[in-house]
Amino acid sequence: MRPYEIMLILEPTLEESAVQGLLNRVTASLDASQAAVTRVDKWGKRRFAYEINHRTEGYYVLVELGAEPVALEQLDRSLRLADEVIRHKIVRVPEGKGRSASPPRAGALAASRSDQDT
User: Fold this and answer.
1) Using an 8 Å Cβ cutoff, are 44 and 14 in contact?
2) How far is 34 from 48, CA to CA, in rounded Å?
3) How far is CA 15 from the centre of its chain?
4) What is the pLDDT of residue 99?
5) Structural domain spans, the chain
6) How do strand 2-10 and strand 55-67 relate by DSSP bridges?
7) Residue 117 above 90 pLDDT?
8) Average of pLDDT values for 83-89?
9) How many angstroms separate the Cα of 109 from the Cα of each of 33, 106, 116?
10) Residues 15-70: pLDDT tens digits?
11) Inter-axis angle of helices 16-32 and 69-81, nearest 10
């Protein structure tokens, strides 16, 4: 399975129960296609830098998951058709760049620099 991030921008007028219902539908769709949702992060309402469909703000949600590319095709289609979703973006996270990867130790970085000096 490959790591992905999905950024959702939802209607700002949605109540918390409607947002949770949409997220439940998304995770159920991913579970049905053997994808593993690792994290759902609700960012809340944010102002846009520019108007999108005559709106100036939206409700942001970030979903981190592991899935095969075929599993995301159906989800992409359903998100395009959902009236609650203003925009969405599915991004593949490069291997080793995900949040679960531990950052390099400072000592390891210093050791690699001293090797280059010789």
Assistant:
1) no
2) 34
3) 21
4) 57
5) 2-117
6) antiparallel
7) no
8) 93
9) 40, 5, 11
10) 999 999 999 999 998 888 888 999 999 999 999 999 998 999 999 999 999 998 88
11) 150
- Cα dihedral 55, 57, 59, 61, rounded to 10, equals 100
What would the two tokens of residue 12 be? 């700002």
CATH top class, domain 2-117: alpha beta
Torsion angle in degrees (nearest 10) through CA of 96, 41, 71, 20? 170
Mind giving me the DSSP string for 16-78?
Answer: HHHHHHHHHHHHHHHHHTT-EEEEEEEEEEEEEEEEETTEEEEEEEEEEEEE-HHHHHHHHHH
Cβ pair 8, 60 in contact under 8 A: yes
Query: What percent of the chain clears pLDDT 70, i.e. is strictly above it?
Result: 81
| CB burial of residue 59 (10 Å; 0-12, 13-18, 19+) | buried
Residue 12 DSSP label: T
